[in-house]
Amino acid sequence: MSQQTKRDYYDILGVTKTTSKDDIKKAYRKLAMQFHPDRNPGNKEAEAKFKEASEAADVLLNDEKKQRYDQFGHAGVDGQGFGGGGGAGGFQDFGDLGDIFGDIFGDFLGGGAGGGRGKRRGSARGGGRKGDDLEGSVTITFKEAAFGCEKEINVTRDMVKEGTTPQPCTTCNGAGEIRRQQGFFVMSQTCYTCGGIGEIVQTTRKKSTLNVKIPAGIDHGQRLRLSGEGQPGTKGAPGGDLYVLVNVQEHELFVRDEYDVHCEVPISFSQAALGDEIEVPTLGGKVLLSIKAGTQSGQKQRLRGKGISRLDGRGLGDQIVTIKVETPTSLTSEQKEIFKKLAESEKSHLHTNPMSKGFFEKMKNLFQ
Q1: Helix (H, G, I), strand (E, B) or coil at 128
Q2: What is the C-alpha radius of gyration for the chain, rounded to an integer number of angstroms?
Q3: What is the CATH code of the structural domain delimited by 255-327?
Q4: What pLDDT does 262 receive?
Q5: What is the mean pLDDT of residues 51-77?
Q6: Which one of 100, 120, 154, 317 is at 20 to 30 Å from 291 when CA atoms are compared?
Q7: Given this model, what pLDDT does residue 282 score?
Q8: Are the C-beta atoms of 141 and 191 separated by less than 8 Å?
Q9: Looking at domain 9-109, which CATH architecture does it have?
């Protein structure tokens, strides 16, 4: 393609001169995944766009080439050799594009360049490979989450069968990686069968029981990481990790808010009007709570240090008690007479009650 007909490299990738390298890589990877020949067999237009995007990325991801391109355009980089110096067999060393090619190739094979929880982890060719991570779960009570506990969890791992020896991997012929040639490129990927060790080991599933220490203050949905308790590694490499999802059961009285605990406590009309001392539940047992005379329904009182242990060990949260004044639904004849007398008395004092006084003053202003 001549200099006159070549498209601007920035336009090809949809980036600008100030775009970061990471964003340029993302833009290129998106186009490469879309137009890669393996995804578009026999499509010459897609192949051309793939080569065009690769050429643009090769220049813009190389500081020296990018500087020449910004100053002189295509004339500043033509003739430099796509991807830098020549490699064996006429192929080039693609530098910053290498890791991207590996990712793309991995996607086509159903794997990825990097490891992760529950995924096979690659290794140096022929070397040991760290074991895969495992996931499990445990269910605990509200109180156990508040103060901590120990639980047993069953784990199933792949263990090497007794009396068996490793066999060379037939997918990669013991090389630990798969290499493919596509147009200008030679791409390699950790073998998806043996995970890069070049061998296949006969394994069997084996169950075991672990004691898991649940720290005080853990919350529903959080995970615990048990180092080395995942799948065993190969050739002396360390085992993977076990991630334990913690499920906390709901409590019939308490609701958690970070490290504070909320609960509602009902009291009678007489207790609210005259005041009283009542027992209220906490996670540590019953305590006495003083109800002031004239307490209104919905008022809150704080019990310091009666909440949940903090994960960092720095004390406890509080318990917030919401007072609910309960209206009686069934009255005796004697109680009805008392309430009737109370109602007559209240008529002359209604406007002195704080809530009623404010309400009637607003209503008066509304109809003036």
Answers
A1: coil
A2: 36
A3: 2.60.260.20
A4: 96
A5: 86
A6: 317
A7: 94
A8: no
A9: Orthogonal Bundle (1.10)
